[in-house]
Amino acid sequence: MQLGSCYRYLIPMFALLATALAPAQGPDVKYTVTAETAQVTPGSTVRAVASFSLGDGWHVNAHEPLDKFLIPTEISLEENGAVSLTEAAYPAHKLFTVAGDELAVYEHEFNIGLVLAIAADAPAGDLTVNGTLRYQACDDKQCMPPDNLDMTFTLTVGDDQTAVDPELFASVTWPGDTADDGATETPAMETTATEATEEATVKPETGDWKSLAEDFTVIGRTGFEDSDAFLAFLEQGLTGEVSETDDSVFANKSWGLILLLIVVGGLALNLTPCVLPLIPVNIAIIGAGTKAGSRGRGFALGSAYGIGISLVYGLLGLAVMLSFASAFGTINATPWFNGLIALLFVVLGLAMFDIIHIDFTRFQTKLGIKKNENGSFLVAFGMGCVSALLAGACVAPVVISTILFAQDSYSQGNTFALALPFLLGVGMALPWPLVGAGLSVLPKPGMWMVRVKQAFGVFIIAFAAYYGYLAFTLMRVDTTIDVGQQDGWYTSLEEGLAEAKATGKPVLLDFWATWCKNCLVMDDTTLKDEAVVEKMESFVKIKYQAERMDKSPAKEVTEHFDVLGLPAYLILQPSDE
């Protein structure tokens, strides 16, 4: 089987396949905000209606979902000293059935009533008001990650009290109104107003999490753990003896060791049976060695060749990582993506045992590249770029694995991970300045290369087995499991912190996201262990869904608690009064 003619498109195809697996674009949400009167007067309370349009086929969760796991639709306004939101009247929800489960939703067009307080010293003229709609859009097939819609509207301060669009305001059930007895949906109106209830817990105002968090101290943190380790973490948390540990991808790992392994790995790629036999050919093509005229010029030509290799791997890594930064977590959590990588590595592994033949030697002649007797820096650089792309089946698994590792690290907040593919190229480029200067001590091809080739085959098949196992595991783990639905878990950070402050209990704060496969596995295994469940009863348990850690409000919350990656489990101790 000849795959050589198509292999140079392998990594671009990998990128295109990743794009195909990426989640679809969410709806283009449009909005208008209409005040009840043409102008508002200082010191008054006025009503306004925020009207939203999602587009046909889309809906958002109601303000009070039937399932606490879901992201509620919520509107908020920024305080500007002149206008403040005192209450919000949400519409009656509709019932939407998915896979036998009923959901409370707002359909593609809905209105939210706003009760606004105008400051007594509000200046005459136009007032700009900024706000945010927090929502999660779904259609009948999939749900988008939670998102924020930035809103801006203008109120005019003056004496004109002419009514605007009475029918629009009559369509909203305002606080104090009586619901239509014929309504089939419940409740007829939902409101953000804080009301006294028979329950002992008082809900804090929305957005008050930061002031509540100031009354707590982080005494411990951990990441993915088995039941025994997590149980020990909880037990130590109850005694206040837990120490904070880094839960990032590089936790308990030396940066120097990671960089060294990647650079040495790149260096070792030159000894693979896909690269080593072509070294004399490439020396002749770039005009290095004795053709260069001097060792200094040969060193420079070899350096130009090596720079080409480094830039290709570095730019390839950057292109893949930055292009799919927002979607990578979701893609990487699918069994299909991991299965695709496993299949690709099986093919490359079989090539190491000559079951599948991949031939690259003919590419150079097809590209019209000939020996360069005088030595050209441009040709040397270009040949380095070409050789990096045509390096072969031995190199592809290492390159792909490095990019996957780097992307996973980058998505968890480690910006330095962007440099890892470049460092792999640096490692592969290291020998070339010396080779260009005339170094002739190179390993000679022989039977040892067959054994090395077979060893690489085993190595690559092991990669395939790893990704195949991930795919199998993810197929068994239902990504719609009831994360956050366990009894006693708060999904509101404010409510959970308020409860802990009132009771004096420590807090177990769980940061998770739907794209975090380890989060899902933890919920399906460790957090269902009977001993762990029993021990967690001593805590106020809060699940915070950090779906998009680079956007508000998750950005502010994760930064406050120094959370770089998921899953992250923190123990908070209430401060002594």
What can you see in these coordinates?
The structure is a single chain. 39% of the residues lie in helices and 18% in strands. The protein is an alpha+beta fold and 577 residues long. A five-stranded antiparallel β-sheet has the order 1-2-8-5-12, with no helix packed on it. It has a five-stranded mixed β-sheet with strand order 13-17-15-16-14, sandwiched between helices. A hairpin with a 2-residue loop joins strand 6 (94-98) and strand 7 (101-106). The longest helix has 30 residues, at 447-476. It is elongated and about 90 Å long. The chain starts with a helix and ends with a strand.
What is the strand and helix layout of this fold?
Elements: H1 4-7, H2 10-21, E1 30-35, E2 45-53, E3 59-61, E4 74-77, E5 83-90, E6 94-98, E7 101-106, E8 109-118, E9 125-135, E10 137-138, E11 147-157, H3 166-170, E12 190-191, H4 209-213, E13 216-222, H5 227-239, H6 255-268, H7 279-286, H8 295-323, H9 328-332, H10 335-352, H11 363-366, H12 377-389, H13 395-411, H14 420-429, H15 431-436, H16 447-476, E14 489-490, H17 493-503, E15 507-512, H18 517-524, H19 530-536, E16 540-545, H20 554-560, E17 568-574
Parallel strand pairs: 14-16, 15-16
Antiparallel strand pairs: 1-2, 2-8, 3-7, 3-10, 4-9, 5-8, 5-12, 6-7, 9-11, 13-17, 15-17
